[in-house]
Specification:
Length: 331
C-alpha cells in the first residue's frame, strides 16, 4: 500500500511548556487513522500539521512522495478537507451550505447541482436539502459539514472529534459514513476520538498522543506514577507493576490489553506481573470481548469468545491477570 504521509522526527514548539516532540507517523493512502488522547495532549496540533495549517519547526514532512518546505506546503491545503469539532453552518438551506465551496470555485450551476445531489445521496441527507442548516440536530449538522468538504473532492478528510455530543444512533450512522468514504471513495480519513475501543475497531491504524508525544500503540491500560528503582517496578500509587530493566525515567506506562492473560487460578509462569482481581464488566469489541478487572487498579483485557466460555467468566468472578514486562510501554 502506498504511503501518503510520512512524518519523521517532527517537532512543533509553541514557546510554552507544551510541544509536539519527535513525532514519527506513517499514513497509507485510503486508510482510516484514529488519533486518541486526553484533552490538551496535542491531538489538534497534530491535525493542524497534517492539514497543512501549521508547518513544523523541525523534522521532515513528506506528502504523496514530496518533501514539503515552508515556501510550498500551503498549496497542499486544497487536498485536505478539515471538519472542525463544532462545525459552523451558514444561514440558508442545507443545499446552499454544501454548494458554497463549488460556487466560490466558479463551477457552473448545473455541475454544482449534480455534485451536491451526489454528495447528499452518499451521506443519506437528501431529505434535508431544503431544511434551514441552523435548525439541524447535532448528527445532521455533522453530516452537512462533511458534505461541505466532500463536495470539493479532497484526497484526505480530517475530522476533529466528530462523535462528540452525538447520541448513539448518530454515532452509529457517522461511523458507517466514515467506512463508506473509505470503501467507496477510497478517501484517506484521519480522525480524533476519546474512545479507545471505537478507534480500535474503526481504524486501520491508531496513534495515541500523550503530552506531545505520539505512539503507535493502544493506550487502554494507561497509568501515571513513578519508577520504584528498588523493586524495578512502576508505582501507580495503588499498584507496583514490574517493568523492563534499565528504565531510568518514566511518568506513564501502558499495557497491551491483548497481552493480559486471565485465569481462574494463579499461573506458574515466567510472567513477572500477576494480580488477583474481580471481573467488573464485559463488552463486545470488534468480534472479541473486553473484560474489565478490578484489582488495586482497573485493568482491561481483550479475549476471544472461546476463551470467555472456557473460563466461565461472569460479573463478580474472582480471577487472576498476568502479563510480561515486555508487554508494557514505558514513557
Amino acid at each position: 500500500m502506498k504511503s501518503l504521509y510520512q512524518l519523521k522526527n517532527i517537532t512543533f514548539n509553541y514557546g510554552t511548556d507544551f510541544n509536539l516532540v519527535d513525532v514519527c507517523v506513517d499514513i497509507d493512502k485510503s486508510n482510516i487513522i484514529a488519533i486518541v488522547g486526553p484533552n490538551g495532549s496535542g491531538k489538534t496540533s497534530l491535525l493542524n500539521i497534517l492539514s497543512f495549517l501549521k508547518f513544523p519547526h523541525a523534522g521532515t514532512l513528506i506528502y504523496n512522495e514530496k518533501e514539503l518546505a515552508l515556501d510550498n506546503f500551503e498549496k497542499f491545503r486544497k487536498t485536505v478537507g478539515y471538519v472542525q469539532q463544532s462545525p459552523y453552518l451558514l444561514r440558508g438551506t442545507v443545499f446552499k451550505n454544501i454548494e458554497l465551496g463549488l460556487k466560490l470555485k466558479k463551477i457552473n450551476k448545473a455541475l454544482r447541482a449534480k455534485k451536491v445531489s451526489e454528495v447528499m445521496q452518499l451521506l443519506g441527507i437528501n431529505k434535508l436539502s431544503n431544511r434551514n442548516a441552523r435548525n439541524l440536530s447535532g448528527g445532521e449538522a455533522q453530516k452537512v459539514a462533511i458534505g461541505q468538504v466532500l463536495a470539493l473532492d479532497p484526497d484526505v478528510l480530517i475530522f476533529d472529534e466528530p462523535f462528540t455530543h452525538l447520541d448513539k444512533d448518530s454515532i452509529d450512522e457517522l461511523e458507517q459514513i466514515v467506512l463508506k468514504l473509505k470503501d467507496e471513495l477510497e478517501k484517506t480519513i484521519i480522525l480524533t476520538t476519546h474512545n479507545q475501543y471505537q478507534a480500535q475497531w474503526l481504524a486501520d491504524d491508531v496513534y495515541s498522543v500523550i503530552k506531545g508525544k505520539v505512539f503507535e500503540y493502544q493506550m487502554i491500560n494507561l497509568f501515571s506514577g513513578c519508577i520504584d528503582f528498588e523493586n524495578n517496578a512502576f508505582n501507580t500509587g495503588k499498584q507496583l507493576i514490574i517493568i523492563p530493566e534499565d528504565i531510568n525515567n518514566a511518568e506513564h506506562i501502558a499495557i497491551d490489553p491483548k497481552q493480559i492473560v486471565i485465569s481462574r487460578n494463579k499461573i506458574d509462569s515466567s510472567m513477572q506481573n500477576s494480580f488477583q482481581g474481580k471481573v467488573t464488566g464485559m463488552a463486545e469489541v470488534n468480534g472479541q470481548v473486553k473484560v474489565s478487572i478490578e484489582s488495586d487498579e482497573e485493568f482491561q483485557a481483550i479475549v476471544t469468545h472461546k476463551a470467555l466460555e472456557e473460563l466461565s467468566l461472569t460479573l463478580g468472578a474472582e480471577v487472576w491477570i498476568s502479563f510480561k514486562s515486555s508487554s508494557i510501554l514505558v514513557f
